[in-house]
Amino acid sequence: PRVILADEPSGNLDPQSEKDVMRLLKKINEDICEGKLSFILEGGYSLLGLPVCVYSVIQALFKEKYERPPYEYLDFSQNSKIDEINKIKKTLKNLLANYWKSI
Q1: pTM of this prediction exceeds 0.85
Q2: InterPro entries given for it (predicted)?
Q3: Of the chain's two ends, which shows fewer C-beta atoms within 10 Å, N or C?
């Protein structure tokens, strides 16, 4: 075929998994479609995660080694202190209440 349409399952993928999927799509593309490749990114991505995932896609396309960003090593489930988080949340609500009436 000259064209392969693939719905890339980026939801809940970390950047390494994203890169692995892209690497696989690139290999299939090179074997079947003469190396012609196009990507479309649609909405629904995390604004924090989007640049990291886009970068991992670019790394896959150029066959670069993936290096995890430091924040991927953090384990928030064990390190978070709920009292501190609630204090920050309360402070933010107070600061933003004048600007967002829904708070």
Answers
A1: no
A2: His_deacetylse_dom_sf, P-loop_NTPase, Ureohydrolase_dom_sf
A3: N
Model confidence pLDDT, tens digit, residues 68-84: 777 677 666 665 677 77
Q: Which of 21, 29, 27, 22 is nearest to 4 (CA)?
A: 29
Rg (CA), the chain: 20
What is the residue range of 62's domain?
15-74
Question: Using 50, 70 and 90 to split pLDDT, how confident is the model at 22?
Answer: confident
Q: Is residue 61 part of a domain?
A: yes
Q: Residue 31: enclosing H or E segment and its boundaries? A: helix 15-32
Quick one: tokens of 96? 């933003």
Cα(99)–Cα(103) distance, integer angstroms? 9
Q: Two tokens at 89?
A: 């949340």
Residue type, 97: A
